[in-house]
Amino acid sequence: MATFIQLVVDGLSTGSIYAAIALALVLVHQATGLINFAQGGMAVLAAYSAWWLTARGVPLVLAILASIVLSFLLGAAVERWLMRRFERGDPDTAVVVTIGLLTLITGICGWLFTYNNQQFPSLFSLDAVSFLGVSVSQRSIGTTLVIVVVMFLLQGLFAGTKLGLALRAVAINPQSAAFSGLPVERLLMVGWGLAAVLGAIAGAMVAPQLTLTPGMLDNALVYALAAVILGGLSSPVGVVVAAWIIGVLENLAAVYIPLIGYDLKVAVPFILIFVVLVIRPQGLFGRKTVVRV
């Protein structure tokens, strides 16, 4: 039983990493209607910015806050000067542009900071807390709590604020939103900026656990996309729960299903995606879209 609980706890910790990126994907989709594959690259760039500042004596908290501000400006600039040219065209073209942007940002990070592993300082202690034979680090606990707080803030943003409702209106129908008097272009910039802020927070939480490299979040981005599909693009709570489910089931399958083991545990989220899409295409917590014709 102790082994089982330990696997569950470790899975929740790993799932929090996936959830951090998944929340940023949900935010940019809710604000623009697009899936931003460059989100992982923008998060890594923010983490490198904070690391560069700490290497020059800036306190960690101030360095992370500075990277958050820079990320907001970067996200808004990307929307204004790049994505705006494609947002009203074919959505597939815009998605391809975000993939190209991911490659570009990763290359820039490697060019500026090299591809060597860098140690990113953690906001939380590495000391472990033991309870009923289960050991979990304070860093994992802190990361999970931060993700939970961000999840509720994001849910509250879209459900209970004028800004969140305006962002959703722009994403659903920008023409109608413009006719209603909403500043569509400004809201799109804000949406991309806020998504970049979430990416910066995710990068700061994840980098101490994975070590900082340009491709640090490549694998996590795949799992985050799986969590978005499972949880539903319209539900921040859903994607976090889905990310935790993926992390826990991946760990349990690796230990208790010999056919899968550690080598094939990467297949677990894809099996879950297949099952969920067959049973509930909108995701576990997503809303079914009704189109009037």
TrEMBL record:
Transmembrane regions listed in the UniProt entry: 6-27, 34-54, 60-82, 94-113, 144-167, 187-208, 220-247, 253-279
Subcellular location: Cell membrane
Name of the protein in question: Branched-chain amino acid ABC transporter permease
One Pfam family named in its UniProt record: BPD_transp_2
Keyword set, alphabetical order: Amino-acid transport, Cell membrane, Membrane, Transmembrane, Transmembrane helix, Transport
Bilayer topology annotation: Multi-pass membrane protein
Similarity comment text for this entry: Belongs to the binding-protein-dependent transport system permease family. LivHM subfamily.
